[in-house]
Amino acid sequence: MTDGLQEFDALAADKRIDDGANYQWRVAARPVGNVVPTDFEWAVTDIPEPGAGEVLLKTHYLGLAPVMRFYMQGTGAAGERVLEPGDVIHGRGVAQVVKSRHPDWREGEMVQGQMGWQTYKVSKMTDQEKFWRMPPNDLPAALGSGVLGMTGLSAHAGLFACGDPRPDDIMVLSGAAGGVGSMVSQMAANVVGCEVIGMAGGAEKCAFIKEHGCSNAIDYKSENIPDRLDALCPDGMDLYFDNVGGETLEACLERLRLHSRVVLCGSISEYTRDEPFRLSNYTRLRATETRMQGFFVYNHVDRWDAVMEDLAGWIHDGKLEPVQDIEQGFQNMPRALANLYYGRNVGVQCCSVRGEPEEWN
Amino acid sequence: MTDGLQEFDALAADKRIDDGANYQWRVAARPVGNVVPTDFEWAVTDIPEPGAGEVLLKTHYLGLAPVMRFYMQGTGAAGERVLEPGDVIHGRGVAQVVKSRHPDWREGEMVQGQMGWQTYKVSKMTDQEKFWRMPPNDLPAALGSGVLGMTGLSAHAGLFACGDPRPDDIMVLSGAAGGVGSMVSQMAANVVGCEVIGMAGGAEKCAFIKEHGCSNAIDYKSENIPDRLDALCPDGMDLYFDNVGGETLEACLERLRLHSRVVLCGSISEYTRDEPFRLSNYTRLRATETRMQGFFVYNHVDRWDAVMEDLAGWIHDGKLEPVQDIEQGFQNMPRALANLYYGRNVGVQCCSVRGEPEEWN
């Protein structure tokens, strides 16, 4: 391997966790460009004791999202504290209440919320921390760190609240093999009835997305995106769900139909540029009366229960196959994050903190 | 005067029209940058005779819009024929049926539609030409070339169909003294109940817009737009109605509130750049869940009657003062168009083809 990820394997090689301490990953340095191993600091502290009104939580799964690089850079932490070097990295996950001195929470309960990159946490379980009980849906707890977590809420909010998808829409979707993308493609095709053209990198991912909602795939690593779009949707698209930004967004803006919609979910292709990307053709929104809308998942948490009921229902109905890409072991959290920027993950990137056997994926 | 407009006065100086011929302005050369007198060709032809099923129309007023420079360049002519050098320039206006061999139109009727820059036209009055009878609203016919013409439809569609304005919204509006802007500001303030912050160039225009719906004005020629926005709406805006694009759009995208809206109406500051403007901060739409939407007025013509009824009603109610800036005489059409790019007009730029005395403005 010559892609930089092997350095993350070396970072993890001498590290293991156990139940005798609290293990943490902290910000060592603010990332410049892509994350590198020296951006992360491994720390071992005592397991904290819960005080009155507090619980002790034990982490089982943590979810990874592209935004975490921004957290480490001290930006993008809407609703969370801005991180400084030395701080535990933000991250939501699935945990169990192992001690409780809080009247509303009992030992053994499974929860999901803001754990941070650590194996234990003491919490007052305030609203601000956004902890929720895992819903009783007979689905694996691991899904709470991804498909039934913030990634699922993002996919649902982006597609339904922003994208206003309609049956028979031609939807183009970038990042189709990723966490949000693999959910959006299935929901658009199987719940709404859209024709989905997905973009992904490499033959393997393109085969994957064609089994998960996409009727056609564009391999952005080996194919010319504008040419392929012209071939696959010669009359343009009704909906573009953007996970990548950059020139791909520009190519789609050139191929919009009347009253189309553009959902701005992410722009991962822009995150490691030195200069901000500058969009040359936003005025294309005019002639086609296109609505381009961004969304921020934390603005949608008040709809959490209803969204999770939708998602669990579609999983049970076979309309949404939950796909999580699970790194085994807390020591591999930095690599799990790097996977996102290297385009390595298929489905939602998560980490099984304690490396349990995993039925899903 | 040293601003280039005096050359247009020289262009007009030796030209006059009468009822003995059809006078025309044609494309002489495709404009490069701003329009210049040598882009226009004066032509005199015979008054055409209507055949069976046709009418002869006599032009009284013509409206001017920034898009006309694009028509002359051979672009932007959605719904109209692409212009080549030698063609009569596209333009809508108010005319009278002076001969009719068409069963549905009688002599003396006033109409508005695609006349082109000429003093007579023979028409089959097909749907494609988009001719309408002037509505019976007891308002001056001149308004049909602007406030009650395509400019009015643009202002209405942009504000209501795209902007979704709400009472107490803080709306920022660029180009507030212009044709669309002077209508949008009054409708937003007086019909909807928004607080409108307008931008215009120069003290005189700023005084004007404060008498036409704007509670505050920013003079973009002498003031720093970001600083003034920070002072006038420190918590940001709910709605930005964009007539200018460029850095002004960027400054507003930095100052959006949650669930705000951006209406892309025009980008006149970008039209004469050599390179397309490249928007550096479109990703600001994400954190605030802002909806940025363009519109194209020709997509709204099916709502013509209802929109005109709204506008005429608001004029009668005193909520909308119609402001038209009327050049006198067909020979001044090139100058009337140049006024737009030089920021000279206040209100909707029109031309009284026959230079009649004009009660309005």
UniProtKB/TrEMBL annotation, chains A, B:
Ranges for domain Alcohol dehydrogenase-like C-terminal: 179-311
Key word Nucleus present: no
Keyword Oxidoreductase: yes
Sorted UniProt keywords: Oxidoreductase
Recorded GO MF terms: oxidoreductase activity, acting on the CH-CH group of donors, NAD or NADP as acceptor
Domain (Oxidoreductase N-terminal): residue spans on this chain: 24-128
Name of this protein: Enoyl reductase (ER) domain-containing protein
